[in-house]
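Anyone up for a design puzzle?
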């Protein structure tokens, strides 16, 4: 919290305190002018924004919005950071992911700002036998290595340990994570795995490799299945508790078991929610450690990855903006390591430019924006402290639900967890379809003439478990239909936008309709006549007043000219000849899909 200097100067001393109720009355007065007759708390509620997990963001936070004391960095409950110095000494660990057996890009990354490696090994990634070649030229005593090998976790870990020994890396100089994650692998693939090999590796690391951790508590499978922030927290907590039970059962102390875990979370372009999630995650894990009798072992090591769910395939350049916000949130939230996915991640293997932009995102925030120089910069904000507290409670409740189901493994195998995540994603899909959650370059401001970005196919990802979702998937399906039509006929499906009256009357709705139809790959035509447009459907665009005067007549003229369907851009009303309406909050995906169906676009 900010501590004011005791110099006798109070900047607001000459101003009287303003009661919260007075502010609410002022809000009510403004809302009344817009047609909402509400008073008191209802006026404040009218300006609130609903979030997932039953949370709400209110328009004003004050000292009345109390939250538990967050403590100090490096001390329980670790809300403000797991280390007293935070990331002030050199910034967070810049960790890049590689999945191809080519040591060239690995060395390029390390020579240009990357400080650790995250390697996808086994399966369709880097073959275990090729690990040594990929790490050729890498100073293993300086660059931490984190493995992600799925079912090949043990052979990959043994190979890395062999390389340490072969290259003369002292056990106390080895840094990184062997990446065992049996429950995460089950969530990805649906295949159950044992814990014996992970327990053996954990004992080995606890006894001889103090800088190596064995297990990753990966929350990305649940985030990528459409889970909310609280569900992501609850799943990570349930997974970590399951690992604690296994490790202590294998002979490790609680302190040793906690030291073998690294937590992985997603960072989205919702910067405040991401910051709150990371702070809440540390608080929750500290509570678990305290309950296990090891409060000093509750400092959570966090690896944060920019969200794959938010990455788009259309206009992928906008992904740079999303990733920058997410990285800022990860750094401000106190992440120990951050992986910025390249902007072309959703398209395949990244090229050299995409990898450079990804690593430089962290470099610029650390070296030029000096983001890491302040520990927990969001701490002390009434909004952030309250959001952290509310999210921690929501995450804890979901964790308790999983425990009541028998734990993380039981929740996965029964299908209960999958159903919870699917329900959350279904609700979010509705908001995406209605553009309540806009996607720049996809559902808002799409660019049909965009030149496609083509990349080499990436290794196939594990499947068979929880689904992988993307925010753009519904719109991507519509655009794919349009692309196929373009390839088959030489032109995209078209719609004629009939602007009524002067520009001042029609521009806003003309722009709205143009954006909406382009989101489905339908090309808007605004010049010439309907007959010249090559379109089969039309949309009226103007003001409500002009609709009353002209809509019926113009709709009749368009149908006489051959329009099979006439839309009106505006709220539904009584307009003879109009077949449908497009407006803010309408189900854009349903409207666009039905339009393509009528146009014969398969």
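Challenge accepted. My sequence:
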């Amino acid at each position: 919290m900010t501590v004011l200097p005791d110099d006798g100067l109070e900047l607001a001393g000459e101003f009287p305190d303003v009661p919260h109720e007075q502010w609410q009355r002022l809000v009510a007065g403004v809302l009344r002018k817009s047609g909402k007759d509400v008073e008191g708390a209802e006026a404040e509620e009218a300006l609130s924004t609903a979030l997932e997990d039953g949370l709400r963001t209110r328009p004003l936070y004050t000292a009345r919005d109390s939250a538990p004391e967050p403590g100090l960095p490096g001390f329980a409950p670790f809300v403000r950071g797991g280390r007293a110095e935070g990331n002030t000494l050199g910034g967070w660990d810049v960790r890049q992911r590689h999945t191809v057996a080519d040591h060239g890009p690995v060395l390029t990354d390390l020579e240009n700002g990357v400080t650790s490696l995250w390697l996808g090994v086994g399966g369709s990634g880097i073959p275990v036998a090729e690990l040594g070649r990929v790490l050729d030229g890498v100073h293993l005593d300086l660059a931490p290595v984190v493995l992600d090998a799925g079912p090949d976790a043990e052979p990959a870990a043994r190979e890395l340990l062999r390389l340490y020994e072969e290259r003369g890396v002292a056990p106390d100089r080895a840094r990184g994570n062997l990446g065992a994650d049996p429950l995460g692998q089950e969530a990805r693939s649906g295949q159950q795995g044992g814990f014996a090999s992970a327990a053996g590796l954990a004992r080995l690391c606890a006894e001889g490799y103090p800088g190596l951790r064995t297990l990753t508590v990966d929350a990305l499978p649940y985030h990528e299945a459409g889970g909310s922030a609280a569900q992501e927290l609850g799943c990570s907590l349930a997974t970590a508790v399951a690992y604690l039970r296994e490790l202590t059962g294998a002979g490790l102390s609680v302190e040793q078991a906690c030291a073998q875990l690294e937590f992985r979370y997603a960072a989205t372009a919702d910067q405040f929610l991401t910051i709150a999630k990371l702070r809440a995650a540390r608080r929750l894990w500290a509570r678990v450690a305290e309950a296990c009798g090891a409060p000093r072992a509750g400092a959570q090591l966090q690896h944060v990855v920019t969200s794959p769910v938010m990455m788009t395939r259309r206009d992928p350049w906008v992904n740079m903006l999303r990733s920058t916000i997410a990285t800022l949130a990860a750094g401000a939230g106190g992440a120990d390591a951050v992986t910025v996915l390249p902007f072309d991640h959703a398209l395949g293997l990244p090229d050299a430019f995409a990898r450079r932009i990804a690593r430089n995102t962290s470099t610029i925030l650390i070296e030029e924006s000096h983001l890491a120089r302040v520990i927990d910069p969001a701490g002390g904000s009434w909004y952030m402290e309250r959001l952290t507290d509310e999210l921690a409670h929501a995450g804890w409740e979901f964790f308790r639900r999983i425990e009541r189901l028998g734990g993380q493994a039981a929740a996965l195998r029964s299908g209960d967890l999958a159903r919870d995540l699917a329900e959350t994603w279904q609700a979010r899909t509705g908001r995406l379809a209605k553009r309540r959650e806009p996607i720049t370059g996809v559902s808002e401001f799409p660019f049909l003439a965009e030149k496609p970005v083509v990349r080499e196919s990436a290794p196939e990802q594990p499947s068979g478990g929880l689904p992988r979702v993307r925010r753009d998937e519904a719109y991507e399906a519509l655009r794919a239909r349009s692309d196929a039509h373009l390839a088959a006929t030489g032109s995209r499906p078209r719609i004629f936008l009939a602007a009524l009256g002067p520009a001042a009357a029609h521009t806003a709705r003309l722009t709205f309709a143009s954006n909406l139809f382009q989101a489905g790959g339908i090309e808007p035509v605004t010049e010439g006549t309907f007959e010249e447009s090559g379109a089969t459907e039309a949309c009226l665009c103007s003001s409500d007043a002009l609709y009353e005067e002209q809509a019926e007549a113009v709709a009749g003229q368009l149908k006489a000219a051959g329009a099979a369907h006439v839309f009106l851009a505006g709220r539904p009303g009584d307009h003879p000849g109009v077949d449908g309406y497009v407006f803010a909050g309408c189900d854009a995906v349903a409207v666009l899909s039905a339009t393509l169906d009528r146009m014969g676009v398969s």
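A detail worth pointing out: Residues 407 and 459 are 32 Å apart (CA to CA).
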